[in-house]
Queue: 3 jobs
Job 1
Amino acid sequence: MSDPSRALVLFSGGQDSSVCLAWALDRYEHVETVGFDYGQRHAVEMAQREVVRTRMAEAFPGWAARLGADHVLDLRGFGAVGETAMTQERAFEITEKGLPNTFVPGRNLVFLTYAAALADRRGLRFLVGGMCETDFSGYPDCRRDTLDALQTALNMGMAQDFAIETPLMWLTKAETWSLSKALGGETLVELILEASHTCYKGERGTRHAWGYGCSACPACELRARGYDQWVAAGRPALAK
């Protein structure tokens, strides 16, 4: 069975996964990261992954001692199957199913399955992801009941005892900023603002109060609205 002090963070380089990385480093003795190249339009996030990891280790020496290997898995074949706005140049809109066309069918299911296979080999018990159903884009594979079902299937199929951890599941985007501050103070907040990347269009030319982005795609709109709400509340820290 996997070591209960070891975790694997699904790490895209975005705001949410950066907060999850900090959360895991604050909680577990050994933390590794995994990223997925699925041909996403915002491929700049892949470059920002190492920037976030490096700056986090520099800013928090205690976490640096816990930060282990990084892994990148090639899932371009899978990304091409869905033909969504995440992998093709097309306008962001709602589909006939009532879902944003940024939804890549099965993406989190595939990501977690690959992550579990990697974790099995690396002896990592906890799989940490930034999925959230409180303040999100409506993706069905971000729901906790979906992840509970997948956790059961993975453990049955791999004879393991994995636990899928989702520290942001019931938090709004404003509360995610509060959690960032609770974990690492203003140092972590500024690190995430400056180094992470969430914009679906991959725009890093303009630094807004809430970070870099086009300010028009669904990811930017969610992030900006959450940051504004957090600032309006006085930039509180969330109890860990």
Note: Residues 116 and 127 are 7 Å apart (CA to CA).
Job 2
Amino acid sequence: MRIVRDWQFVDEQDRGASAAIGNFDGVHRGHQYVIDIARAEAARRAAPLGVMTFEPHPRQYFAPKAPPFRLMNAEGRANRLDWFGVDVLYELSFNDTLSALTPEAFARDVIAGGLGLAHVVVGEDFHFGKGRAGNAATLADFGRDLGFGVTVAPLMHDTGEEISSTAIRQALTDGRPRDAARMLGHWHRIDGTVIRGDQRGRLLGYPTANMSITGLHPPKFGVYVVKVDVLTGPHKGEYGGAASMGVRPMFGENLPNLESFLFDFKGDIYGEHLSVALIDYLRPEEKFASLEALVAQMDADCARAREVLAGL
């Protein structure tokens, strides 16, 4: 998958695509539906399949001090879109210039002129341009005038409830990763680089791969059953595991992070890129009376995690 970040300088091979437009936070089933419509149009036109999104997320740009809300960082979103077979990711830099464009200027200068898109697909709740003044209907009008096709996709629902990033965030807040996965159409994943921690786990016999969750909506703190994809380096592959999400109360107050213990694994993966899928929530974080009690609970957690993974 090719990534384009500047709409004013686009290679010819990346023009003429059929593209889905949106923020695609989580790349949930509703997003996938929009992408699949764009995919069908791309096949009909023998054109590249594209996704246009924005980085940072516009909500993050306009309210940088608001609590973290994103389900995915840019790396995780790109990994997921690549997995779904997107040819070109137009990950446009959301800045003063882009945010100041009127709906008409966005349609004319970015969609038609800059990227030269042949067809775009948006959800029926889509808004764009300065002040979110444009909507799906006005985009269709601009498309007719400027020469690109527009398809407006209806919102998708699950058992009568709209599938949305908001509903998925609530499921994760409640410690319900399987409900989140049902709406996502895939396991909720946290992607990023393995960073060096305090290496306490190694001393306890449970070396962990530590990852930051800064900027992401934090799932319920506690211990999870996980699947871990090592995406780079000599140990690439999928591993089962157990992971702790939170502030590690046994060792004082710490920045929230994700620490994953990979089953049946030996090797150095510092600096490598991982994708950690949350499968089941096992228990809340806890401060134990002793390190021996902590290790005994970790033994039980890992045994339970192996049982869950064996049943998938």
Note: The chain has a mean pLDDT of 94.
Job 3
Amino acid sequence: MQRERVLLRGGRVVDPANQVDRITDVLIADGRIAEIGPALDSTGARLVPADGHVVAPGLIDVHVHLREPGYETKETIATGTAAAAAGGFTSIFCMPNTRPALDSVATLDDLRQRIAVSALVRVFPIAAITAGRLGQRAVDFSALVEAGAVGFSDDGDTTADCSIMRQALAATLDHGRPVMVHCEDKALAPGSMHEGEVSRRLGLRGIPAAAEEIVIARDLMLARLTGGWLHICHLSTGRGAELVRRAKADGVRVTAEVMPHHLLMSDQWVDTSRSLLNVDEPIGPTATPRDPHTKVNPPLRTGEDTRQLITAVVDGTIDLVATDHAPHGAAEKTGSVYEDAAFGLSGLELALPLMLALVRARHLSLGDVITRMSCVPAKLWSLAAGTLSPGALADVVVFDPDQPWIVDAAKLKTKSANTPLIGMELQGRVKHTFVGGVDRYGT
């Protein structure tokens, strides 16, 4: 099927994979990048003015909870991928904590059929490490890779059995997909927020940073032992970043991701703060202590942790930025006291503007952001994405980096707008998201 021709006229084209950052045109034809250059011929093409906007490879999020099958009251493939498109993401990886868990060829086949019907962006499944995510028996890694799995994770349920983790990491040498770990010693983590001064002031039981760091250290040792590919999900502590930094220097095959909320928010947000850290941005509306929308796992850490994590992004210790988009219904958040509320934040529509705040504060360049949110994940997982090279698939995001907007729950595409950013002013708005040349989100 021939797709429409689209000419993106006069945007700032940022394509770090080709070291491109200039004002020029991009022509999309038959689902691919046809040409990049000044004053391209628009004959037969839909003209999309992009002056004042950035044109970049579509963003890739390797950590998303779509909730389907089993938890469609929180999110569905349709609503989750609509949120992804609104956030500039053209490819997302979905986590296996569904019902049933993504632990068999049959469940991946069922998911693939659902994706074909409902998805607006590309969706790649992450399979469970153990059957039912129960931590007792390893899945058939080879069969699941054959069925389309791009990684393996028990996600919120850390795989406690070292022998299973060793087996999973060793298997990556054969199938080339990472073990993507949620690092948490649950015996140390019965709390609801970061353990520290703020938790003590609020009278809330805390989750110490050591609960994460102990498991990071264990899994790095197992990665060293096996030579396998370890990917650390949602790194949240400065000491954890230092463990990764040292392991990389020693030749361990480890990659790591960080979430925007762990770069820009601290445990002070659980109290009353609505000021983004490390940047000069508008302060949000007055908040009340123990807002369940601030409850996330791993928890919001200290301001010092945020600064150390930014350093780790800048020096390459942290490879990429993901969202850990974790939608929950209102009853699970605002209908609960803090201790009983569900862990998780909605992030797909908010990640890019949060990262652009770090660009304005000169911690990162725009090219750095596109690299860590598109080029690096594409390269690590060998995806046909992350570039605007002529002939490449036309997965493209167009955004206005300067447009201010107020986060309004009613206007977000996600089914569950559980975020403490509601009512805050952010800057940077997606205008178009093209997936294979098809405009999946346009304003």
Note: The chain has a mean pLDDT of 97.
